[in-house]
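Dear H.,

Thanks for agreeing to be a second pair of eyes. The structure we're designing against is below in token form, covering all 316 positions.
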């Protein structure tokens, strides 16, 4: 989700010692390699589809056995009053990091990732769009993952963050991005043995065919970010043709939805339209990028829109 600036620190603090004790109590079998195979990166899954060991994002999200064994961490998550999607503990080995990237996938169009550091050192730095911060243990942060970002663990110890994905309530966004009081006035969310740590978790189900209104929203967002790598007549004309192609695609998708509905009874026709747009966009996309993160326009179109238009048997 795009934010108005790279980083926001939320005005709340957590019991670091309690968090560290719960995380230290996890068995080593809880930790699995990063789903993208990034060296030195591992994770303990806390909220997953069905509460099982998976990195899938479609289905009913539920707490895993590891989260069930961490009452304060559950209390921390429940205290935000939001619906949580996939959530994990992310561990960085000493001296390694997360390579620079931007999160342009469909999943991130309406979600933000909350970070709560649990084990960290001052040498751990989070970089986003030219800015750099150290997220201190027990703090809470969000950042604009549409912008290019990376993490470097320059310490000689592991870094472990709680990372949890949410679209957030209105109250959450007012709290996260509103005026921040002096730090001495921030709430300390202490361990409360009597608290009801009931979590709200996503039921991430989508219709077989993406509704026309959502297609329009995604395409308009993409076109607002469209930029050219050089100010030449050819690229200006190409950007105009690309935008016109996207506008035509939305009109045609809306007509197919009006004719067939979105229950999936006419998947071949929807797939044909998507394939035609993909081919036409590929011929125009050279030199077209996203303004915020320089990602290629065709790649963003593919990952944020085209890959998610038609579903069958629970897969895209």
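And this is the sequence the design step returned. I haven't edited it by hand at all.
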């Amino acid at each position: 989700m795009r934010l108005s600036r790279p980083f926001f620190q939320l005005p709340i603090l957590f019991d670091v010692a309690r968090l560290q004790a719960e995380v230290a109590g996890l068995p080593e079998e809880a930790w699995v390699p990063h789903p993208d195979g990034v060296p030195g990166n591992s994770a303990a899954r806390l909220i997953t589809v069905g509460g099982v060991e998976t990195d899938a994002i479609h289905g009913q999200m539920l707490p895993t056995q590891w989260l069930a064994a961490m009452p304060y961490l559950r209390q921390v998550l429940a205290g935000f009053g939001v619906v949580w999607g996939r959530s994990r503990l992310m561990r960085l080995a000493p001296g390694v990091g997360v390579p620079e990237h931007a999160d342009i996938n469909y999943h991130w169009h309406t979600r933000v990732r909350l970070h709560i550091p649990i084990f960290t050192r001052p040498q751990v730095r989070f970089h986003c769009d030219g800015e750099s911060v150290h997220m201190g243990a027990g703090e809470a942060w969000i950042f604009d993952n549409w912008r290019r970002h990376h993490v470097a663990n320059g310490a000689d110890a592991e870094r472990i963050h709680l990372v949890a994905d949410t679209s957030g309530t209105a109250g959450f966004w007012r709290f996260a991005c509103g005026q921040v009081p002096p730090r001495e006035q921030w709430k300390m969310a202490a361990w409360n043995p009597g608290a009801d740590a009931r979590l709200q978790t996503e039921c991430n189900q989508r219709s077989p065919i993406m509704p026309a209104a959502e297609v329009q929203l995604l395409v308009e967002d993409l076109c607002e970010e469209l930029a050219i790598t050089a100010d030449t007549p050819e690229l200006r004309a190409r950007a105009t043709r690309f935008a016109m192609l996207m506008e035509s695609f939305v009109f045609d998708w809306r007509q197919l939805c009006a004719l067939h509905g979105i229950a999936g009874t006419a998947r071949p026709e929807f797939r044909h339209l998507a394939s035609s747009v993909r081919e036409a966009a590929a011929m125009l996309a050279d030199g077209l990028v996203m303004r915020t993160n320089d990602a290629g326009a065709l790649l963003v179109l593919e990952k944020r829109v085209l890959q998610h238009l038609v579903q069958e048997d629970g897969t895209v």
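Two observations from my side: The two ends are 22 Å apart (CA to CA). The longest helix spans residues 233-260.

Warmly,
E.
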